[in-house]
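Technical note accompanying the year-one report. For the benefit of new consortium partners, we illustrate the data format agreed upon in the data management plan: each record pairs a sequence with a structure-token string. No post-processing was applied to the example shown here.
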Amino acid sequence: MPTLDEQLRVSLAKFPIIALHAKMKTMSADEALSLKQRLALAKEQFRIKYASCFWYMPRDLVISEEMLPSIARALRKNGSREDYLIARSLCP
């Protein structure tokens, strides 16, 4: 019978962004997300937290590598503690 941890990993594998959040919580400072992962995370956060963090940006904003510092700044300024930690991983 699989352990609870193994069951959780299998469940999270179905949802890559949620799995990425779980990975970030256990990641050391030396590890960094790839650019592709950071862009996916930034796009997801922009979509989810638009009303609370990104209300002053255009809703149809194209998020690119150049936009990552602005996304991280908005998360730090207008978000919660969790958002602050996510911002830290967007711009290592």
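Partners are asked to follow this layout when depositing records. The chain is about 65% helix and 0% strand.
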